[in-house]
Structures are given as structure tokens and as C-alpha cells.
Design a protein that fits this description.
This protein has a single domain, classed as Aldolase class I (TIM Barrel). The chain has 239 residues and is α/β, with parallel strands linked by helices. The termini are close together. The protein is built from 10 helices and 8 strands. Helix 9 crosses helix 10. Strand 2, helix 3 and strand 3 form a beta-alpha-beta unit. It is globular. The chain has an 8-stranded parallel barrel, surrounded by 8 helices. The protein binds pyridoxine-5'-phosphate. Pyridoxine-5'-phosphate (PXP) binds next to strand 8 and helix 9.
Length: 239
């Protein structure tokens, strides 16, 4: 059964709306773990719009599962990762003007920078995943630069407006998972996944872990974190 890593950035977004100290993503991290999540994800952005350095440090110190740090392949972030030592770094593209990560890292364009980041992080003992679009060339490049795993971007599938576009997008995910597996890469998947879209993954083997944030935290506003996380885990169990 694939695992579930829960992204708690959206708790920090709510806190930053008031620039005070509640709700605390550190508390959310403990709660998602207690509800059965296999890991906690935070994206420390260059502009610190939600997660702050303090959150990453405290979550690192207090969780008992694993910390996945999403970050740009910048020298500032690499230095922070080397100090904090997350269990996994997921390298993502980052634009200041975007609302959320808008697509996978383009390894054709950024191969050298990403490859250098992977090597530096590996020297510090940190495994690296690369967030890529479901594109076979990108998966091959991730393998070539010796990433430990890929996280396949599921956003285009989740946002598809017609059944045809949705099934085309899903086919790309399936082919990407198969290739990544064949290349012995670990396979995570995420972005935009919710309580309905997750059901499409029934019968698709090869995904190690789903990385899900917004839909779980949005549901938690109404039903509580414990129930929101457990309901997602129950759906993943049925896949
Ligand atoms: N994976 C990556 C690389 C992301 O950037 C995000 C968003 O922070 C997610 C997964 C989770 O996406 P969502 O919040 O839409 O579930």
C-alpha cells in the first residue's frame, strides 16, 4: 500500500494571514502523525510566505516519522537542508508570482543546477526526490542525475476539465510510474490530489507515497485533522 505524507503548509498560510502564532503547523505535524500519516511535508519558500525556518526546525525536532522538505535548488535552501537534515528533499521549481507550485522541474533547462544540488545533498547524507511532470524524458533525466526518487506531478490530471483530457493525463502518469520503477527510482506522486481523484489510482502499482496537502487541510477545517487524514488513508488502502 502506498504511504501518505501530509503537507502542512496550508496551516501556516492561515497563520500568516494574521502574522500571529496560530494555527501552528508544528502542532498540525504532530496531529497528522497521530492520525496515521507516514510523513510530514513542508515547502520552505524563498519568500517565506507560509512555512518559516522556525517551523522546519521544530517539526524536525518533534516528529517521529519523517520530514520531507520541498525546496528550490538554491544555495540558501541547500545550506538549510544540510543543517536540518530532512529525511528527504524534494526539489521543486519556484516562482515568486505563483499561487502554488505550477509544474515539475524542467530538467532539460535546469539539469546542471539540479545535478549539482543532488550531489551536494547526497554528500550531506540526504536522499533527493525531484518533482517532475509525467514526461518520460524528465524521468530519464532524473535517473541520469542520480536522484533517489521522482515525485510525479499529478496536477494536470486533477485539474483536467474533460474526461478525455483526464484520461490522457492519467495515462502519462501510468507510463511515468512504470518507467521510474524500471529505472529503480523511488516513486512519489502529488499535487492537487483529493478525496475523489485519489480513487483513480486503484490498481496502479508502483507508487511508494502520495504527497497531499490542500484537500486534507481544507477538509480538516470542517471535520478535524484526525478524521481528514484517516479518511484519506482509508481511500489509499482501497487502491
Ligand atoms: N507535491 C509538491 C511538489 C507540491 O509543491 C505540493 C504543493 O505544496 C504538493 C505535493 C501538495 O499539493 P496539494 O496541496 O495540492 O495537495
Amino acid at each position: 500500500m502506498p504511504g501518505l505524507a501530509v503537507n502542512v503548509d496550508h496551516v501556516a498560510t492561515l497563520r500568516e494571514a494574521r502574522k500571529i502564532n496560530i494555527p501552528d503547523p508544528v502542532t498540525a505535524a504532530a496531529m497528522v502523525e497521530l492520525a496515521g500519516a507516514d510523513g510530514v511535508v513542508v515547502h520552505l519558500r524563498e519568500d517565506r510566505r507560509h512555512i518559516q525556518d522556525r517551523d522546519v526546525r521544530l517539526i524536525r525536532e518533534t516528529i517521529t516519522t519523517k520530514l520531507i522538505l520541498e525546496m528550490a535548488a538554491s544555495s540558501e535552501m541547500i545550506a538549510i537542508a544540510l543543517e536540518i537534515k530532512p529525511n528527504l528533499v524534494t526539489l521543486v521549481p519556484e516562482k515568486r508570482e505563483e499561487l502554488t507550485t505550477e509544474g515539475g522541474l524542467d530538467l532539460h533547462l535546469h539539469k546542471n543546477v539540479v545535478s549539482d544540488a543532488v550531489q551536494t545533498l547526497h554528500k550531506g547524507g540526504i536522499p533527493v526526490s525531484i518533482f517532475v511532470d509525467p514526461d518520460l524524458d524528465q524521468i530519464k533525466l532524473a535517473h541520469r542525475i542520480v536522484a533517489n526518487c521522482v515525485e510525479i506531478h499529478t496536477g494536470t490530471f486533477c485539474d483536467a476539465e474533460t474526461p478525455r483530457k483526464r484520461s490522457e493525463a492519467f495515462e502519462k502518469i501510468v507510463n511515468s510510474v512504470k518507467l521510474a520503477q524500471k529505472l529503480n527510482l523511488g516513486v512519489n506522486a502529488g499535487h492537487g490530489l483529493g478525496y475523489q481523484t485519489i480513487k483513480a489510482f486503484k490498481g496502479l502499482s508502483g507508487i511508494d507515497e502520495f504527497s497531499i496537502g490542500h484537500s486534507i487541510i481544507a477538509r480538516a477545517v470542517f471535520v478535524g485533522i484526525d478524521r481528514a487524514v484517516s479518511e484519506m488513508i482509508a481511500l489509499i488502502k482501497e487502491l
